[in-house]
Amino acid sequence: MGTRTVLHEADITRALTRIAHEILESNRGPGGLVLLGIPTRGVALAERLAALIERFGGEPVAVGQLDVTMYRDDLSKHPTRAPRPTSIPDGGIDGRVVVLVDDVLFSGRSIRAALDAIGDIGRPAAVRLAILIDRGHRELPIRPDFVGKNLPSARSERVNVSVTEVDGVDEVTIAGPGEDA
Fold first, then answer.
1. Is residue 4 part of a domain?
2. Total of domains in the chain
3. CA 154 to CA 175: how far, in whole Å?
4. What is the pLDDT of residue 75?
5. 142: domain range?
6. Is 105 left (phi over 0), alpha (psi -120 to 50) or beta?
């Protein structure tokens, strides 16, 4: 089958711009928002969304990162990676609207882990979910509030998001079984 590129830089920029507008509309402005990116690529996407929300909403938005490694329920199935630091913006998350940001939503296990991690940090007024790619195949009842692109894929395929800040390029690719995306 080969690896195919399904989103290019302009597509990702358009998707993030739309998500930023949807977040602003849903929240009735930027007040009280905190964006928490899930490492690795979710952090870069959260920072981009924060810049767009500030541009469109006229005021800065707090942004941080939330490592969920030690909250995952599937650590025995996947090689453990070194946890990244969690950084919560000044003012914390209590009483604020937290928007979790990640690159790909698949089984929902990372987001379940993120909800557990948030519970250990504070009590937000609400938690929303912004995802660049929703590929389906949910194992848990988790639904994103903001989606850049719904990308139906086979369970055996690999969806890979690359961002300039980490990978030197902005693109989303799909690879078949046994291929690197």
1. no
2. 1
3. 10
4. 64
5. 10-74+85-154
6. beta
Q: Which two tokens stand for residue 166?
A: 């980490």
Spatial separation of the C-alpha atoms in residues 44 and 138, rounded to whole Å: 24
Asked, for residue 53, whether it belongs to a domain, the answer is: yes
Counting every residue written for the chain, the total comes to 181
- The pLDDT assigned to 168 comes to 97
Q: Please give the model's pTM, rounded to 2 decimal places.
A: 0.93
Distance CA 170, CA 162 (A): 5
CB-CB contact of 16 with 163 (8 Å): no
Tell whether the model's pLDDT for residue 13 goes beyond 80: yes
Tokens of 80: 């453990």
97 located within any domain: yes
Q: Check: CB of residue 37 under 8 Å from CB of residue 46.
A: yes
CATH of the domain at 116: 3.40.50.2020
pLDDT at 180 (0 to 100): 60
Query: Tokens 């990640």 — which residue?
Result: 102
Residue 105 lies in a domain: yes
pLDDT digits (tens, 9 = 90+) for 91-124: 999 999 999 999 999 999 999 999 999 999 999 9
